Amino acid sequence: ELKQNVYSIKNVVLKDEEEFTDILEERRRTTDLGYALRTFNPQPYKGAPSGSTSDLKKAVLESQYLRYIIALETGSSVEKVRQEARGILEEMSHNLQLGFIRLMGYTVSKVFKRLFRSIYVNMEGLNMLQQAIQESPVILMPNHRSYVDFLIVSFILFTYDIPIPVIAAGIPLASMKVVGEILRRSGAFFIRRAIGSDKLYWAVLSEYVRTIVRTGCAPLEFYVEGFRSRTLKSVVPKLGMMDMVLEPYFKGEVFDITLVPISISYDRVVEESLLALELLGVPKPKESTTGLFKASRVLQEDYGCMHVNFGRPLSVRQLCEGKINRSEYNLIPRDLPQRPSTEIQDCVNWLAHLIVRTQEEGSLISPWSLMACLLLQAPITTLTEEGLQWHGLTEKTLWLRKLVLDFRGCLNWPARTPDSDVMSSTVALHHSIVHHKAGRVYLVQDGDPASQDPLSPEEGVMRTAAAVLMLVSYRNQALHVFVRPGILATAIHITKSTQKDELFSFFCFLRDVFSNEFIFIPGRASQDFDEACSLLQKCGAVHMSQQEVTVLETGLEVLSFLQKLLQPFLDSYQLIFRYLCENGAHVFTEKQFLPAVQNLATKLILSGDLHTFEVLSSDTQKNVLAALRRLEAVTKLRKARKWIVYFTKGATLGGSIPPRFPLC
Amino acid sequence: MKWNGWGYSDSKFLYNKKGQAEFTGKRYRLSGMIIPGLREWMESTFGANLQHKTPAAPILNSSAVQPPTLNEAFLKELKSTGIPFSHDAEDRVFRSHGKAEKSLLMSTKQSSMFFADCHNDVVKIVELACKHNVCLMPYGGGTSVSSALECPPEETRSIVSLDTSQMLNESGYCTGHEPDSMEFSSLGGWVATRASGMKKNIYGNIEDLVVHIKMVTPQGVIEKSCQGPRMSTGPDVHHFIMGSEGTLGVVTEVTMKIRPMPEYQKYGSVVFPNFEMGVACLREVARQRCAPASIRLMDNEQFKFGHALKPQVSSIFTSFLDGLKKFYITKFKGFDPNRLCVATLLFEGDREKVLQHEKQVYDIAAKFGGLAAGEDNGQRGYMLTFVIAYLRDLGMDYYVIGESFETSVPWDRVLDICRNVKARIVRECKDKGVQFPPLSTCRVTQTYDAGACVYFYFAFNYRGLSDPVHVYEQVEHAAREEILANGGSLSHHHGVGKLRKEWMRETISSVGMGMLKSVKDYVDPNNIFGNRNLL
C-alpha cells in the first residue's frame, strides 16, 4: 500500500476514471528538506542479493563472458585488455547512493516546483509497479521528450518508497562537471554514442546490463527510442539495449522480466525552441554545466503540467509465449556469446515496437496539441499575416476533442472549466508560439523586429519554419491517435476506391513507406487496417460492408481533416523522391544531401509550389532516407557515410506503387 | 502390496487418534514412529486440513473393471504349456499401471496375466502371441512413472501382460544398483528403462553395470556371443535394448557386475547458506571427481520437509542438542532459515578410505560456506526418498496430489532450471485456479562430469477444483516444457513411456526417430509388443 495517508491526494478525473494525483501539491505543503531526509525503505526484488556497486563491477569483470571476450582480443596482452575493460567499466558504471538520491530529491523538487504547476501521476500504475518490482526484474521504459524527464521517474519512485532505478544515459552527460557525477550517484550509467565495432566495449556494456537484470539489484530504466525525440513524435525503437535487457530471459537466467512502459507528456516542453532550430540544422549546444546554468532562465517560465502515466506491467514471458523457442540457446554454454536467431530478433523488434505503441497510447493529449493540428491546416499566410479567427478555431478544437474521444485517445482536458477559459489559458501558456489579439490568432516569429537589415526571402522562410516546426512538434504529440484512420482517409482520397481490398493494399503500401515515420507494430497490418476502419465507422465517417467502404456525407469533415493532417508527410516524401530521381548524382553524402534538399524546398516554398515546411526538418529527411534504404531503393556505404542511389524513376519501388500515386 | 498406492500394504502414513502423524509397519527406520511436525507442515504447506478427507477406493470391485477382450485360441494353446496365468481383475489392474499420479486413477483393458518363470516360458509366450496376433505388454516391478504400463486406448487386440518380476532371484550379492524404487522394481525393468541408481558414482548406471543381455523378440532371441568387457563391433546393440521400454521384446536374462559388500558405510550432511553455494560445491566436487557414493542437495523447501519428518525425540538431551545446532547455524553463522539448504552424503568403502574421502569432501564444502551437519541428518535424508512415495498416499487422503519428475542438465544451467521450473509450477497452479500455493521443490541428486540430475517434486491441494487430474496434467506438461526450454533433458532415468512421447522428436531429431523406428519395424513388424511407449 502506498502512503496515501501521508501524501494526500487531489484527484483529477481525466480518462476512463483513471486517477491521477498531483505529486507537487504535497511538495508545496511540506518542506523539501524534510522530504529529502525522510526514511526511505523500499521493498526490493525478492530474489535480489544486497550487493553494492563494487560487487556489480566485480561480477561483470569476473564473468565468464568477459573473460572469454578478453581472451579473444588479440594484439595486446590479456592483462592490458583486462585493464582496458576495467577502464570502460569505470567510465560506464553508476554509483547509486542513497545520500545523492536525497540530494537529487531535494533539488529536483525545487526545480520542478518552479517549472511546473503540477506533476500528475497515476497511482494505480504505481501500485502495480510496486507489486511487480518484488516479483521479477523490472525494466522501466519511459519515452523521452525533454532533458527534464531524466530524473522524473527516480523522483517519483523516491517519493513513493519504491526502489530507485539505474538509468542508461548518453556519455555526454557524464562529462558535465559536477552534474555528471551527481547523476552517476543518482543511478545513471553512461553509454558512448558511436560504439561501432568496438567489441570489447560492447562486451562490457552488455555484460553490465545483463548483470543488472539478472541479479535484479535495481530496476533498470532506459529509453527504447534511443534518444530524446526532437520532434516530440515517437521514434522507431532502437534494439541494442532491448537485446541486452531481454537476453537473460531468453537464456533462462531469470524466470521472467517485467517491462513497464511509461508515458510522459508535457503541456509545454522546456526546450521547444531549441528543438526546432536543431531540426533546421542549427547544431544543438553541447551538454555542459555552464550551459545548464545559462539555461536557468528557463526557470522563469511557466510550463504548465506534466503527466507521468505508468503503464500496466508487461510480462516478457507471457508476451513471448508461442513466439520463440528458447531451446536454441541449449547447445552453447550459457556464458558464451551467441547470435540470436531471426525468430528471436523479430520478437525483440516486435516487443520494442509494442512498448513504444503502449507509450503512445498512455500519452495524454493536451488542448494545445489539438489546436496545433488545426493551426497547421491553415494557409501559412493566414497564420503569419491575416491571423486565424479565434472563434472558428475554438469551435473546430471542440469538434476535434470529440473526435479524439471517439478514437479512444487519452485526453487531458481540464474538467469543470469553461471551454473558452481552457482555450485562452492554453494560448497564454504557449505565448512563445502564438498570440491572440482582437479575435484572431497569429504565429509568433522569432527575431528582432527592430533589426536594420531586412531578411532575405530565404532567411524569412527559415524564420517561419522555426515557428512552424514548434507547432509541428505539438501536433506530433497527438498524431498517434490519428495515424491509422488518417492513412485510410488518405488511401480513400487518393484511390477514390470503395473496394475494401484495394484500400487495404494501398493502406499497406502507405504503412510500409511511413513506417520510419510512425510506429506500426510489425506484422499487424491487417489489425491496423481493421482498427482504422472501425474508428472511421465509429465516428460516422464511413459505412462498412463486407467488401466496401462507403464515405458518408457526414464524414467528409473528418476525412478531410485526417487527410490534410498527413498531407505534409506525403508532400515531404514526394519532394525528396523527386529530388533523388531528378538529380543525376547517384552517390552523395549526408552532408551534401540535407542542404540540397533544404535549398530545393525553400525555392519551392517561395514559388508557392510547396505548402509544407516540414521537409526542411532534418528529421523528415533522415526518415525518408531510412525508409528508402529499408525498401532497398538506396544503400549506405559503411565507411564514407555515403549514400548510393539506385533509385530511378520509381523502378525499384515500381512493383508496389499503384499508378495513381506517382512518387516522382 | 497395494494396487492403489505405493509399496507394502502394512506401511503407510496415517493420523492417529490424537491427530498426530504416524508411520505404520516395521520395515523402515521411521516405522512405528510418531512424526510430530508432519501435520503442521502439511497444513501450512498445502492448507490440507484434517477435516477435509478424501478416502481412496479401498477395495476393487471386479464389475468396475472392463471385461477383458479374450483370444480363445491363444489361451487354449498357452494353457497346454502350463505357464501360470490369471484373469483376476485385481491382478490385471495392478499390472496395467505404474506409479504416475494419473494411473492411480485409471482402469484397465488387459485380458489376462501370465507369470513367466524362465527364458523358455517367455519364448513360448512370444511365439504364440505372434501366431495369434496378441498384444504383449511386459511388466517388471510396476514402478513406472511415465505411463509406460497403460494400455494404449487405440489397441483393439487382446492385450496380455507378461509379469517377469518373479524371475529375479534373491542373489545376496551387491550390484550397487539402488534406485529409489529398488524394493519393488525388477532387473528386466531396469534394463528396459535405462535405470539409474543412487550409488552410481561408485557402481555406475545400468549401462555401466550390464555385461550381457538376452532378450526375446518376435524376430527371435537377441544376445551377444561373448562377455568381453568392451567391444568395438559397431554400435552397441545393448543400447537398442536398454531404454526400449518394452517395445521390442522381453528381457529374460541379464548378466551384471557384482561387487563385494562395502566394509564401511557412513552418512553425512552439510548445510549451505543458500542453494547457489550448494550447487557450486557439488560442481566442484564433480570437477575434482571425488563424489561419494551418493551426494544430494536438497533445496530449502525440501530441507523444511525433511525437518517435518523428524520423529519424536526421546530424550531432553537430544532436543536440547537440536536447539543448540539450530541456534548455531541461524544465529551464530547467520544462515537464513528460509534460504539455507542441505546436502546429504553417503560414503562407502574401506574404513580408512571413507574417512579420508569424507575429509576431502567436507574441506571442499567449507570453501562454499558449508557446515557439517551430522550423520543423522544425512541418514534421514535418504530415508525420506523411500518413504516420500508413501507420503503421497497420505496426501491423497487429504486432497493433495503430487508427483515427482526428473531431468539431467549441464552444470551451467542447474541453478536456472531449478529456479525456473519451480517458478513455472507455482505460476501454472495459480493460473489454473489452484486455491492454495503448491509445494514446488527440487534436489540435485546425481553429479556427473558434465552436469547433474535434478529431481522435482510438486504437489498441491486440489480442494475446490472440478477437474484436478486435468489441472495436474497441465501443470506437469508446462513444467516439462520449461525443463526443455532451459536446456534440460526429457528424462534422466524415468524414461519416456507414453507420458513424454510428444517431445521425442525434438529431443532426438527426426533422423533419430527414424533410426529407432526402423529398428522397431524390423524387430517387431506386427507390433506384438504394442505398449506404444517411446515412439
What order do the helices and strands come in, and which of them pair?
The complex is a heterodimer of chains A (664) and B (535).
Chain A (H helix, E strand, L loop, with lengths): L10 E3 L5 E4 H7 L2 H6 L15 H9 L2 H9 L5 H15 L5 H18 L2 E5 H13 L2 E5 L9 H8 L6 E5 H4 L4 H7 L2 E4 L7 H17 L4 E2 L18 H11 L7 E9 L5 H8 L9 H6 L10 E6 L3 E2 H5 L21 H21 L4 H9 L4 H7 L1 E2 H17 L12 H11 L4 E4 L2 E4 L13 H39 L4 H14 L11 H14 L3 E3 L4 E3 L4 H27 L4 E3 H17 L11 H13 L3 E4 L4 E4 L19
Parallel strand pairs in A: 3-9, 4-7, 4-8, 5-6, 5-7
Antiparallel strand pairs in A: 1-2, 2-3, 8-9, 8-10, 11-13, 12-13, 14-15, 16-18, 17-18
Helix pairs in contact in A: 3-11, 4-11, 5-11, 6-8, 11-12, 12-16, 13-21, 17-19, 17-21, 21-22, 21-23, 21-24, 21-25
Chain B lengths: L12 E3 L5 E3 L10 E2 H11 L25 H8 L5 E2 L2 H7 L16 E4 L3 H14 L2 E5 L19 E5 L23 H7 L6 H4 L2 H4 E8 L2 E3 L15 H4 L8 E7 L7 E9 L2 H13 L6 E5 L1 H9 L7 H17 L8 E9 L1 H17 L3 E2 L2 H23 L2 E11 L3 H18 L7 E9 L3 E11 L6 H18 L18 H20 L12
Parallel strand pairs in B: 5-7, 6-7
Antiparallel strand pairs in B: 1-2, 2-3, 4-5, 8-9, 8-10, 11-13, 11-14, 12-13, 12-16, 15-17, 16-17
